[in-house]
Amino acid sequence: MPSPQFIQLHREDDAALRQELAQGLLGQPASVSPKFLYDALGSRLFDAITELPEYYPTRTERAIFDAHAPAMAALVGPGRTLIDLGAGSCEKAARLFPVMQPARYVAVDISVDYLRQALASLQRQHPGVEMLGVGADFSSALELPREAGGGERLLFYPGSSIGNFTPEAALRFLRQARQEGGAGGALLIGVDLVKARPVLELAYDDPLQVTAAFNLNLLRRLNALLGCDARLEDFAHVALFNEAASRIEMHLQARRDLTLHWPGGERRLAAGERIHTENSYKYTVGGFDGLLREAGFARTTCWTDERRWFAVFLAS
Ligand code: AVI
Q1: For a pocket test of ligand 1, which of 35, 138, 164 has the largest count of ligand atoms closer than 8 A to its C-beta?
Q2: What is the reported pTM?
């Protein structure tokens, strides 16, 4: 019985994280990178978000794969190295195994520890597929290690996480994906589409307040990592669709005049002032297709749901 291999490429340096957080808080407007949303509790809250009736992206994307995976597989062909970016529980890729029939599976996530259990269980179900877990942060640069192997690569980036990059960073990421795919490489990517404001805003501000908890959890991280004295009850979750920028923005809005203190710094916030915590860009099919072509992909195919709320692109 083969067993998966694991490598950890990058480790966060606490001092660098503290500096990044302080710099963000001192900015105008104040901001905190969305990468801090995902500690153990934040990741569980995000999983809960994906179960909410208002948060349509996860289930809409799943329905697109359920309906069209055989057509995607026919274009991609069997025997690929399937490279899963942000693999987490590896569940989305695992659903594709029977139709895509990869020869090799490379799961990439920020920490290799997130991948150990999932990969071990996937390996038991698919003993014929070689498996590798890679701990890497590809949010600033997508560079796969040599161990990811050759062969025809299929990069898999579901979940519309590309929307959490600025369009410039998204273009950079797509260019790197094209390069990392190599000759004969392909990219299968999920993208959330522009739609009516109330649908979008409800998806990011649900009545059960799970997304509010997900956002407010950032303050707990600020306190733990930076030694900050933020009180959760002093902030309100705000999610709004910025139509001009075509993005949902999440903010933490001060409920009163207050000052945040941490060793070596402080930041005053007036009542109503916000800390910007996340952008989630929404694309049109034509707009994202243009971005793929600008990144150097020559052939693209797109599948959407009936309402055209979400799209999956295959680019090669
Ligand atoms: C992970 N990412 C695609 C989610 C999104 O929809 O932008 C993160 C999220 N933020 C609030 N709800 C979900």
Answers
A1: 164
A2: 0.96
